[in-house]
Amino acid sequence: MEETLASLRRPKRRGRPPRPREEYHHADFEDVAEADGLAPPQSKRKRAASAAAAASLENQPLIDIIKHNGRLISHAVKRLVEDYESKKNSVTFQILTMLFEACGAKHEIYPDYLRESDVDDIVVSLVDLARKGLVEDNYNSKHKDLKNFKENLVSFWDSLVLECQNGPLFDDLLFQKIKDYVVALSCAPPRVYRQVASLIGLQLVTSFISVAKTLSGQRETTQRQLNAEKKKQSDGPLIESLNNRLALTHANITYLEELMRKIFGGLFMHRYRDVDPEIRMSCIRSLGIWVVSYPSLFLQDIYLKYLGWTLNDKNAGVRRTSILALQSLYEVDDNIPSLGLFTERFYARMIQLADDIDVSVAVSAIGLIKQLLRHQLLSDDDLGPLYDLLIDEPPMIRRAIGELVYDHLIAQNIKTSHPGARDGENEPSEVHIGRMLQILREFSDDSVLSSYVIDDIWDDMKAMKDWRCIVSVLLDENPAIELTDMDGTNLVRMLHASARKAVGERIVPAVDNRKLYYNKGQKEILENSRREITSALLTRYPQLLRKFISDKAKISPLVDMMTLLKLELYSYKRQEKHFKTAIDLIADAFFKHGEKGPLRSCIKAIIFCCTECQADLKDYAENKLKNLEDELVLKVRTAIKEVEAGDDEYSLLVNLKRLYELQLSKPVKNDSLFEDMYRILAHLRDMDNEVKSFLLLNMHLQVAWCLHAIDGENPSETCIDELLSKQSSLFDQLYYYLVVLPTYQKEGRSTTVLSCRVCIITAEMWCLFKKSKYSSTRLESLGYLPQPDMVQKFWKLCEQQLNISDETEDEDANEEYIEDTNRDAVMIAAAKLVLADTVSKDYLGPEIVSHYVSHGASTTEIIKHLITSLKKNTNFDMGALFFEALKRAYERYMAHVHDGENQILTGKSYSECQDLASRLAGSYVGSARIKNKSDILKIIQDGVSFAFVDLPNQLSFLEAALLPFVSKLQSSDIPDILADVEKRTQDTNMVGDQGAWRPFFTFVEHLRDKHAKNEVLHEEEEKPVRRRGRPRKVRDVPDVPDHQRCGKKLFRDDGHNSSGEESISASDHQGHGEDDDSDGDADQPLINTIRSSAAKLRSLKVSQQGTSSHKGVPGPSGNADLLLLIGLVGASSIVQNRIVMARLICLSSCLINSVW
């Protein structure tokens, strides 16, 4: 049996294994007898398929095969090559005819005419067909049958070249003819001709390169054989045969390279500047392939310069294609020595593209810069501008820069000799953490900028997820790193930010503000990360809290870590004592600090534990919170008594801040506390303004929580009486300050804060107890309507805050609660009163709108969205609002004129009046101009009446406020206005003061000019042009050097130059190698190169989005006023990040929702 099996086995071959079969049959140049072997027998299925393909080819022209039957291309090409030896003219005619038809020309060219005519004559006739419209655009067609047209066309020419490599390719007839027609058609005016011819010509070069590489391999083999034979014998038939084969192979390679050069000169050099960006992209893409695949010819500066020039192309797709081509070029280490001059000339442009207006271009450019760094072709000084992009808006750019910073500065593996080597990955986490801290040292003054840097690098840096290592470094257990105080702060921030990222939270504001959604698998990953963080901190967390409990910069992010832990693990692993210790330490930290950050973090952490914990741990957290509340109330009351006794106010201020932060999250039930605060506020008027502010804030929150506790269905009379008493007491204090503060002589930040607080709390109280909200309910007695004189006093104080200079606000930008006490917050509070219809719109609405253009971009945005919201109310008279607003602005100007003291201020108020009129008139465009034509006419009529009240003193109102509305009038309304004006001036002496009457004559002249034009009002379609990508600085791009073109008869006769219609902007920057940086930084450490960039980043003052709202406060669902306010805040790019401010302003409105 064994012998039988052994006999059935195939004999084991010895020696060299057989050479794998190649895809294409290359020319062996062997004897005919050896080359004439029989083909292997085919199976029946293959023979049947071949027969069917041959049958189908008989009835189909080449163009139909390319359009509809791509699977038959190889059979068609083989048949053409087989027929070529006997029917050269016929096959050539078929191929060229297919070329013309692929271009879409519906020609009637016959073989004899094609053979006898010149190339240019044929192309001119094809161009004439295009001018007559006899062209079918197969290239750009969206038809379903032609979806594979480009792919099939490329496949045909590639197959043809490869199939002809054993003969027809080198007969100096077929492909010379093809080359001439392709080059000529690529320069023809019809775009579709250029598109198809460029596609074919570029593919021909690519296919030629494939054949040339095969021949180069054969040449090397033949040369080795020849050298070996020469060592054996000096002469003989074999050596002669090898010499002949070597010469023939070299001649064929030279022939192909010459063909490539001609196509490059005749096609590429014109089409890389074509008006069509798709053609330019295909040219640059192909050139990148050629340089990488055939460097012996194309890796030269005469070809590389085109890749450099197109880095300045006006089309983003072309720029990106050029960058990608260079990326593939720099990936090959052997190419680097030949790229020295090219890199020196264009590296500066590559760095500039990292800040390109198109995001995809910028990201690709950053990848290219990484390759330059890997080959040490850039210095560290060149990277300075790139670090500014660490806080760039598009996340893709920030991620790309973060990866570059990680590779270059942290892992320091970018300078290795091989692309795949990642030496830095094997270094311990402590090393990477130390380098990261060195970077964060440059951003230590701003936690927001630090968050951006951490977010950018987080995905690449595994050491940021090594929780145990970070904790051990913070606890000084790792001797490899010695932390300074600044490093400790940065490391705590990094721990907190990294943990937030690990559990799926954002640490920097999102561009689109979309809510994050995760699938099941992602949620499991995030949950595992939460477990890992908890396990690392389970027993070490109390040690961290205890060590840094007195450090206000470190304790806040450390306490926030509690909300990221999986608290049930404390129970599962029997570590309840560590949890209780952590809670105790957090409560201690609450009473050790008086700043907003630590206080808010402590309250948030304890309430989180009360909500998320179970059983004994939850009871312990709730008891701790109750004890904290009782102790705080006692401290506040004690501090009040001490101040009344004449002691220092510091203790009272700190405890009022703590009480305020606590009341933002939960009610503090102590009736006598409100009375104590009212008493000290009423009796001690000389207290510090900040103390007064927090007394008012806490009283307001007490009132809001008291209202929240009332049962709307069955309210208690006792509760209502108690609330009315608190309401009356708080209004008494607010109204006192509304009267006193406008005349308060003491200036400074504390007075501004108190004024802002009074304005905001007053507006919130009026909204909270809006009379219409409670009418016809059991709580009707709670409704409140402010008196008009109080509304005027309120606005006077608001207006005073709006006039605070920008410089003053910038000086106070880093103070606590600045987001709650600036003019934007005041304007939002006033706008909310108008939107909620809490007070009469007739007074407050025009007053607000009159400041439309007076106080910067953020205030303008708030008022803009107020106007937009008011327009949605069809019953509201917007024309009257606009006219009254113009009057208020003009009256402010006249007040400055009468004072006559400050001419600069007078001129500014007049220009503000003009700008206001232009902005308001600008809202009447398109269909709104027709829809509101009665409002426009009414504004002009009322304005004319107002201007003529006190002649000629108020005539300047015509020029300052009404001229922009004249252009919005219908021509049919102008005669009536002119008649009215002339009637008013019939019996008036206008000879006296010509300067006072000048605005009148200007107004009349504009009316007459408008009427003379006889403008027909029509609906205008004005749509904002939305630019894609990011706004960037305008680049000054020089023109491309002029290239000489080969003169063809086609262009001499026709005079048309397709590439000259719209040439791209490109440049060969000679000065890119120069560096503007000083030489003094050359010897500095690597990290010092980003210090100048860090200073720039700090100056940007990036606003960080607020944290999520505290649990325990009712949500804003169902509150129309609150939603309107949120719309106001969200609409402004400057105000939208001040979430904390909006939350505090709207807190009372949130609380009232649950009553209903």
Radius of gyration: 41 Å
Helix content: 55-70%
**Beta-strand residue fraction:** under 5%
Distance between the termini: 96 Å
Total helical segments: 54
- How many strand segments? 0
Q: Characterize the overall form.
A: flat
Q: What structural class results from the helix and strand content? A: mainly alpha
What is the makeup of the main sheet? Answer: none
Mean pLDDT: 81
Low-confidence stretches: 1-15, 18-40, 416-422, 1015-1029, 1033-1156
Describe the overall structure.
InterPro entries: ARM-like (IPR011989), ARM-type_fold (IPR016024), Cohesin_Scc3/SA (IPR039662), HEAT_SCC3-SA (IPR056396), SCD (IPR020839), STAG (IPR013721). This is Cohesin subunit SA-3. Belongs to the SCC3 family. The protein has 1156 residues and is mainly alpha-helical. Among the domains are: 384-517, no CATH class; 840-1016. It has 54 helices and no strands. Helix 11 runs parallel beside helix 13 and helix 42 (857-871) crosses helix 52. The termini are far apart. The model is unreliable at 1-15, 18-40, 416-422, 1015-1029 and 1033-1156 (pLDDT under 50).
